[in-house]
């Protein structure tokens, strides 16, 4: 993905997200956008690595919350970037 002229160094989708939430004016979104842009390859790699693998959630109707959380949030890099929103 190439970067946009409006947001040098950031992928186009991230730049569009930034424009939508006006991240250039809000430091919380700006930090997330920067983290996503800088770590895009690592995030995509982490998500691709878990695709197509069977998982054990320890139940169908009442799955184990810890196991489910780990499966649904497999990218530590993405999770770390999203944590910037809570700061």
Describe the protein's architecture and organization.
The chain has helices at residues 12-21, 27-38, 40-49, 65-72, 76-83. The chain is mostly helical and 87 residues long. Helix 1 runs antiparallel to helix 2 (27-38). It is elongated and about 45 Å long. It is an enzyme of class 1 (oxidoreductase). It catalyses: D-threo-isocitrate + NADP(+) = 2-oxoglutarate + CO2 + NADPH.
Topology of this structure?
Layout lengths: L11 H10 L5 H12 L1 H10 L15 H8 L3 H8 L4
Query: What is the averaged pLDDT score?
Result: 81
Number of domains: 1
Query: What's the helix-strand series?
Result: HHHHH
Major β-sheet, in short?
none
Number of helical segments with 4 or more residues: 5
Number of strands: 0
**If you compute it from the alpha carbons, what radius of gyration comes out, rounded to the nearest whole angstrom?**
16 Å
Alpha-beta classification: mainly alpha
Please indicate the percent range of residues in DSSP E strands (runs of 2 or more).
under 5%
Q: How far is it from the N-terminal to the C-terminal residue, by CA? A: 29 Å
The shape is elongated
Regions with little confidence, pLDDT below 50 for 5+ residues: none
Give the helix proportion (percent range). 55-70%
Protein name: isocitrate dehydrogenase (NADP(+))
Cofactor: Mg(2+)
Catalytic activity: D-threo-isocitrate + NADP(+) = 2-oxoglutarate + CO2 + NADPH
Organism: Glutamicibacter ectropisis
